Structures are given as C-alpha cells and as structure tokens.
Amino acid sequence: MTESADFTLGQVLEIRQEELLNAWMNSVLLTWRRKYPHTAINEDLLRLQSRQLLDELRKLFSGAIPPEGWEPVPGSKIATLLYDFSVKHAKHGIKHNDTVLYISVIKQLLIRALLQDAPPACRVLNTLIISMDHVLDRLTVTLYDAYLETRERIIAQQSLSLLELSTPVVRLWDRVVMVPLIGVIDTQRARQITERLLEAIAKYEATVAILDVTGVPVLDTSVAGHIMKTIAAAQMLGAQVVMTGINPDGAQTLVKLGVNFAEVTTRATLRAGIAEGLLRVGKRIVPIKE
Amino acid sequence: MKIPILRLGDILLTSIQVDLTDAEVMQFQGDVLHAIADIEARGLLIDITAMEVVDSFMARTINDTANMARLLGAEVVVCGMHPAVALTLIEMGRGLIGVETTFNLNEGLVRLNRRIQQRGDSISTDQDE
Amino acid sequence: MDTLIPQENAESTIPIRDSTDILKARHRARELAAALRLGSADQTRLATAVSELTRNVLQYAGEGECRIINASSDHEVYIQVVVEDHGPGIPDIELAMRDGYSTSGGLGAGLPGVQRLMDEFHLTSRPGYTCLMIAMKRPRALSF
Predict the structure, then answer these.
(1) Distance of CA A255 to the CA centre of its chain
(2) How many CA atoms lie less than 13 Å away from B57 in the CB half-sphere?
(3) Cβ contact, residue pair B60, C106, below 8 Å
(4) SS3 at position C122
(5) Does C141 contact A91 at a Cβ distance shorter than 8 Å?
(6) What is the count of residue pairs from B and C with beta carbons less than 8 Å apart?
(7) pLDDT tens sequence across B91-102
(8) Would an 8 Å CB–CB cutoff place C41 in contact with chain A?
(9) Is residue B76 part of a domain?
(10) For residue A285, what is the DSSP state?
(11) pLDDT value, residue A253
C-alpha cells in the first residue's frame, strides 16, 4: 500500500482513469441529452478530449502538487483542450452553466475518489484537495472565458448580419433604385449603405437613386454628413439623387445646424420622390383609362 | 504603353486599360490635349473602367486634364468609375474629382452630347449648320 | 480552426525607387486583401492608401521602402503597412495632417485622406527618417 505521505492524485488517476472517465461522461451526457435533445453531440470526440484532459491532470499531479496560485499557461495542452471544448459548445448553443458543469462533475468525482483511496490518516489529503480544488477552479475560469469570448464573437457576427439585412436597396423601375434608410446611421452603417447603393447603381445601371430618410429617427450633423457622402458617391457614378422623407422637425434642425442639402433634390414624401425619380427617366404614373 | 485615342465625330474617346505609371499618365495627358487641338474636338470621354485605384495624384491629373481640355474648347466626362473607387475617393475627401463622372460608357456619351448641345455653339464644324 | 491566412504572404517588402514600384506595392496590398477575403471596397481602400503613401515617399524622399504585413488572427483580419524613408522628413506634422494642405500642388487630401480610409494611422517624422504605419482591421467570419 502507498505510504500516506507519497499519496498523489496522479496515482488515483492512473488506477481509476477508465472508471472515472465513464462516470464523468455518463453524468455529463445524461444532463446534456436531457436539456439539448436536438443537439448532436459528438460523444467519441468528447470522450477523447476528456481522456486527454485526465492525462494532463495526471501529469500535473504526479509528483509534488502544483504551486500555489497555479494558472493554466495560455497555449498549453490543457488550456487548448478547454478552449476548443468551450468554443465548440458555445457555438452549438450549450448554455454556460451546462458547459461549466463539465468541470464541476469531474471535480466531484475526483474528490470522492481521493477520499476513498487515501490511506488512513493521510497527512497530505487536505493539501491535495485544496490544490486540486484550486486547479479545477482555474480551469473553470479558462473555460468560462473562452465561452464568453465565443459568444461575444457570435453576437458581433449577428449584429453584422442584421446590419446587412437592414439595408435593402430596391430596384424601383428601370434605372431607378431606392434605399429606405431605417434606424440609427453611424459611420459603419453609412459605409455599408453607400457600398450597397453603389453596387446597385452599377448593377442596374441606375441613373436615379431615391434616398428615403423617413425611418431615420434623428437627423443631426453627423447623420447629415454621412448622407452627403453617400449622395456624393452616387453622383460620382452618374446617378442623380432624390432625397425624401425629411419631416418638418428634421428640416428645422438641419437648417439650424447649417446643413441645407443645396445640391440635392428633396421631396417631402416618398410618393413625391418616386414621381420625381420616374420623371427623370421619362416615365409617369397615369390612371388606367376605361 | 501608348493609350489609343479614338475619334467619333467631333468627340474623342479614350480608354485607360492598364494601370499607368506616373510617366505614362503625363504622356497620356499630352497626347489627349494634342489630339483635341488637332481636330478641334468638342468633347472628350475618358473611360477608366480598368482603373482599380484612383489616388489623389490620379484624381488631380484627371481634373487637370479636364481643365486643360476645357481651355481647348472640349467638354469632358469621365466614365467607368468603379463603385469601390467612387467610395474611396469620397471617403478620402469630397470634391477630389471635379469632373462629371458616370458609371457606364453609354450614359457618359449621352451626358457629353447633352453638354455639347447645351453650349449651342456651332463654330467648330460645318455639319452643325 | 481553419487557417485562411496565406502564410507565404505574412510579410513582403517592396523597395520604392520609381513610380512602377507604386503599382507593385498597391498590387501586392490588393492581392493580400483579396486573399484574406476582404470585399472590393476594402481592397480598393487599402490599395489607394498604399498608393498615396508610396507616392509621398517618391515625391519627398526620392526612395524608401514599403512593408506589407499580414498579422491576421482567427478572429480578425489585420493588415499592416509600414512605409519608411530617409528623406528630409515632414517639417510640420500637424500642418501636413490638415485637410487641403499640400506642398506638392496636389489636392492636399493625401495624409488626412489615408487616415480616413484606415483604422489605424501612426506617423513619426524627423529629418532623415519618416515612418508611416497604417492598418486595416475587420472581424473575420466565424466558421461553424
């Protein structure tokens, strides 16, 4: 039997690896399958990664216990394993508490195994448990950080996609395109709107572009500046721009701010703007005669 | 690399098809001005479809050429401006290009003819009488 | 993680001696932007900025060097361009960064224009050494 002073977690892991792995996987998968019946979980891969993780833990705890304040080295095997695990599960929509569950389950199992296997009156048992507790806590933090980072990226990505969705360029008639501007116009959106509009002008060989600002809540100098740039760029491709949908409040604000859109044709309503736009390509809307 | 300058009635049509070095740009400017003077051209259409980059030097050269051509009595329209080029020029600073620009050649020709007609002068060629 | 980063393009150095080098440098910049899957607007922004800076080198210093560095990660595309020369330097940086200011009879949109096109812009200049660092960064699409 082991001398009580030489007792390590490494030994426990060496003897009990398969048993611990099975118990670990069963417990984690049981919860996940119940909560995410529609998510395909690659069990073989999970098992493989978990086995590697146990290997790393065994190495870490094979001799002296890890120093106080131990942190996983970024880029080390153990950090990479957790990072990949976390990123994958965040992408698959596994919730943060269920991702963290992965570590808390193995912590429980290891504590139990330690208590069971420790020789009677083992002097190092307390230090061992405290050290292991710390290491697994740090691993949880690593896991959690990676999880949050991934979620933030997903959110950023989604807001980008939303941005794209929110900027339709409509082909109104032959050689007439229209952009309904909706919501807050910041630099990034203004860039995107301009890119979209220019592409549409080129694609449809448009000579008239109608810019409708009905849906823009605040028209201030910054927004006006962005719109002026969009207009100038459209004009550079040879398109005439008709701006519509400035309300009385907006008109007051703009002139007080010193913006008067002097070189742009403006119409109060989209309706009038469409009539003007069509006129510029020699078209008119007339009633159907009986 | 010499850029061909084609004559279409009293309009000159020229298309820049490759990225030009600065020396070639200046050469081109000279060639165009001489061609305008030679035939008393009333319009110049510069197609820049193949130009992927128009920096401030190139923009200035285009403006200069247009102003020089005006002094020689020719209206100037630049056509074939790429959307990405237009965007970049606007972002760098508005007013970099002081010439009428259009996306396609056809529209460029329409604008140029309209401008020439608006001038209403008929001294340069006999067929206008 | 997939690696879209063309490693062979990690850094390329283009000596700037005559105006064909301007074309070379901006071609290289555009190629890198295209390889990193940036859109045509961003490709043009980068190529135009490189064109402006390398032309400045020729105009004011006679010769110099342009380095195009791909420092992209899995998370973002990050292209850095460093343009250096050993010319007389920019006497008044504040003035050079002002819109409409030009000593060369240009439109004066050069440096401030480049700054507006780029996400990062750093200029250091003293007699005998001028260095401009610009960078463009874009979030990279997540791969599922």
Answers:
(1) 40
(2) 23
(3) yes
(4) strand
(5) no
(6) 76
(7) 888 666 788 899
(8) yes
(9) yes
(10) -
(11) 83
A101 at interface of B, judged by CB pairs closer than 8 A: no
* B103 with A233: Cβ contact below 8 A: no
pTM: 0.72
Degrees (nearest 5) of the Cα angle A280, A285, A289?
A: 145
Amino acid at C62: G
Distance, CA of A61 to CA of A34 (rounded, Å): 33
> Is the minimum CB–CB distance between C33 and chain B shorter than 8 Å?
no
The tokens of A167 are what? 């900027």
Query: How large is the average pLDDT for residues C27-47?
Result: 92
Cα nearest neighbour of C41 on chain A:
A195
- Residue C5 belongs to a domain: no
| pLDDT < 50 positions in chain B | 124, 126-129
Q: How many CB pairs under 8 A join A and B?
A: 55
Q: Is C2 exposed, middle or buried (0-12, 13-18, 19+ CB in 10 A)?
A: exposed
Residue C3 belongs to a domain: no
Interchain proximity C139–A156, CB inside 8 Å: yes
- The answer, for A171 touching chain C at a CB cutoff of 8 Å, is no
Contacts of C43 (CB under 8 A, 6+ apart): B84, C30, C33, C34
Quote the percentage of chain C above a pLDDT of 90: 49
DSSP tag of A69: T
H helix intervals, chain B: 22-39, 56-71, 83-92, 105-119
What whole-number distance in Å separates Cα of residue C38 and Cα of residue C106?
A: 30
Q: Under a CB-based contact definition with an 8 Å cutoff, are residues A102 and A28 in contact?
A: yes
- Interchain contact C17–B (C-beta under 8 A): no
**Domain carrying residue C53:** 11-139
Pairing of strands A265-267, A240-244: parallel
What CATH number is attached to the domain comprising C86?
3.30.565.10
Backbone φ and ψ of A220, nearest 5°:
-115, -175
The answer as to whether B96 is a domain residue is yes
CATH number, domain at B77? 3.30.750.24
Query: What residues pair up with C134 in beta bridges, in sequence order?
Result: C81, C121
Q: Is A202 in contact with B83 (Cβ distance < 8 A)? A: yes
Question: Does B108 sit within 8 Å of A236, measured CB to CB?
Answer: no
Q: Which domains does chain A have, with CATH numbers?
A: 4-164 (1.10.490.70), 170-280 (3.30.750.24)
CA C129, distance to chain mean position in Å, is 17
Asked if the C-beta of C19 comes within 8 angstroms of chain B's C-beta atoms, the answer is: yes
In-domain check, residue B125: no
**Any domain includes B108:** yes
What residues contact residue B121 under an 8 Å CB cut-off, 6+ apart? none
Rounded to 5°, angle at Cα C15 from C14 and C16: 110
Angle at which helices C110-117 and C40-56 cross, to 10°: 150
The mean pLDDT of A198-205, rounded to a whole number, is 92
- One-letter amino acid at A238 equals G
Q: Do A195 and C141 touch (CB under 8 A)?
A: no
Q: What is the pLDDT of residues A84-122, one digit of tens each?
A: 888 888 888 888 888 888 889 999 998 888 888 888 877
User: Which of A191, A194, A237 is the best residue to mutate to test the B interface, defined by the most B CB atoms within 10 Å of its own CB?
Assistant: A237
Location of structure tokens 């990050």:
C78
Taking the alpha carbons at both ends of chain B, their separation in whole angstroms is 39
Overall number of domains in chain B = 1
